[in-house]
Design a protein that fits this description.
482 residues, Leucine Aminopeptidase, subunit E, domain 1, Aminopeptidase, nine-stranded mixed sheet, 14 helices, 22% strand, binds ligand BES, binds manganese (II) ion, binds zinc ion
């Protein structure tokens, strides 16, 4: 992770990003540079664009100086997102010049604005190159982000470092293919994270999963030679503010071939190493929460397996008895996520949660509806809980678009021969998936479908390319604000 440090002085000519409302030369820039700025300011003023144009950049003895004009009249969340993106652009420019550090110099009266820039820089500097033999040569030159001359609280910087590091970890897990990271290895990664950050991790193996009669998880695992895993993570700090825990449940399908209802390869199956992105987000969120020492009792559950069409693979038409004793007519083996999540949601009942949120790359329908710009959300959580989620989601720019959660849709899941089928109709596919899952809950519940934003095939600013780690920052912000 590219660490973000607090330091008061720019010690030598360096790459600098300046946040300002009115630029002042506080870092001994030579006259020719400030003259250039003055000339540009005048030009912009004459054109009536001063302060609106956004940025001014200059290259001085091989160092980038980027001046970002902060328009405080704009919407806060929008401004913060712009700052992350300016940070990301700065990171790219500095890497291009083989620079090692970026100073963020804040001349506004809002010291905390620097944190958004730093976040954008740190997240943009992520790389997944460990499988390249020339990885050392390909490594970004940028190594540190320095918050200069600000009045930022060290605890806030620490929290930001925790959440960025956790996002890196989630991205790593998503980017690893299934031949490197199967269900057992995913659970092992969570064990490691628990050791590092300080939370309890218990991994249930196939034998225990059988004992618990997790029929959904076992059905999906039936066509695989690799064993499933079910990871239970618990972070319960002394002095936790909540009596009842928050439970996070993440889909951990380490690879989704579709099973016997096999997916086509191009732009479909070839991306399906990302199908444990929800699970990665849950583990990484616990990592950040524990490392930042937030005083909230949180539990994470990740059912994991690959979905393959091997010898005993469950066949369309099979009737599966789930952990809660109810039955599912499994009409499409590619609707596997809901099968494993159902058992996890049932398992969550034992904790009497304040709120359970699941996060899953669950349906192409969610991605088709809103693309990669946001998360599809729905549920029966309280109005207050939904408001908190909505607020956090816009604050971290992992925005939730809430879909209806009407009981009408249950009609589409009716089976003639079992309690439910795992396949809805041709429409409202994201919603029927959520309606399928709610049957396994008895507590306030919210469902997040991240099929759109979990994995990007083209680079998008600080979200990068590949696994985005979506959900980590959302959960961290939500739990921070409780
Ligand atoms: N993992 C997929 C959903 C997905 C699609 C994730 C695209 C990321 C990007 C999920 O298991 C799936 O296959 N869903 C089916 C459900 C259908 C058979 C009801 C789908 O969306 O087609
Ligand atoms: Mn599937
Ligand atoms: Zn899937």
């Amino acid at each position: 992770m590219t660490p973000i440090l607090l330091n008061n002085k720019v010690t030598e000519p360096s790459h600098i990003l300046v946040l300002t409302e009115k630029f002042r030369n506080e870092f001994n820039l030579p006259e020719k540079v400030t003259d250039y700025f003055e000339a540009q300011f005048k030009k912009d003023e004459a054109a009536g664009t001063k302060g609106k144009k956004g940025t001014l950049s200059y290259n001085y003895i091989g160092k980038t100086i980027l001046i970002v004009f902060v328009d405080k009249s704009s919407d806060k969340n929008k401004l913060h997102e712009q700052l992350r993106k300016h940070g990301a652009a700065m990171a790219d420019a500095v890497n291009h010049q083989k620079g090692k550090e970026i100073y963020i110099y804040n001349q506004t009266r809002s010291p905390n604005l620097s944190l958004y820039v730093a976040e954008g820089i740190a997240l943009a500097n992520y790389q997944f190159i460990r499988h390249q033999s020339k990885s050392v040569a390909k490594q970004n030159s940028l190594q540190t982000v320095i918050l200069a001359n600000t009045k930022i609280n060290a605890a806030e910087v620490h929290a930001l470092n925790c959440v960025c590091e956790a996002t890196y970890k989630a991205r790593d897990l998503v980017n690893e293919p299934v031949n490197v990271l199967n269900a057992k290895a995913l659970a092992g990664a969570f064990v490691q994270m628990g050791k590092e950050a300080g939370f309890r991790v218990e991994v249930l193996n196939k034998e225990k999963i059988k004992k618990l009669k997790m029929g959904g998880l076992l059905a999906v695992n039936a066509g695989s030679v690799d064993e499933p895993s079910f990871t239970v993570m618990e972070y319960k700090p002394r002095g936790a503010k909540n009596k009842k825990p928050y439970v996070l449940v993440g889909k951990g399908v380490v690879y989704d071939t579709g099973g016997l209802s096999l997916k086509p390869t191009p732009n479909s199956m070839d991306l399906m190493k990302c199908d444990m992105a929800g699970g990665a987000a849950v583990g990484a969120a616990l990592y950040a929460i524990a490392k930042a020492n937030l005083k909230v009792h949180v539990i994470g559950l990740v059912p994991a397996t690959d979905n393959r069409p091997g010898f005993n693979a469950f066949a369309p038409g099979d009737i599966i008895t789930m952990m809660d004793g109810s039955t599912v007519e499994m009409l499409n083996s590619d609707a596997e996520g809901r099968m494993i999540l159902a058992d996890a949601l049932h398992y969550a009942k034992r904790f009497a949660p304040e709120l359970t949120i699941d996060i899953a790359t669950l349906t192409g329908a969610a991605a088709a509806a809103i693309g990669s710009s946001g998360i599809v959300g729905m549920g029966n959580a309280s109005a207050k809980q939904k408001q908190a989620l909505h607020k956090s989601s816009f604050h971290v720019h992992e925005r939730i678009a809430e879909f209806p959660f009407w009981e009408d849709y249950d009609e589409l899941l009716k089976s003639d021969i079992a309690d439910q089928k795992n396949l809805g109709g041709p429409y409202a596919g994201a919603i029927t998936a959520g309606r399928f899952l709610v049957k396994y809950t008895n507590y306030p519940y919210y469902h997040l479908d991240i099929a759109g934003p979990a994995f990007l095939t083209t680079k998008d600013s600080y979200r990068g390319k590949g696994g985005t780690g979506v959900g980590v920052r959302l959960f961290f912000d939500l739990i921070s604000n409780l």
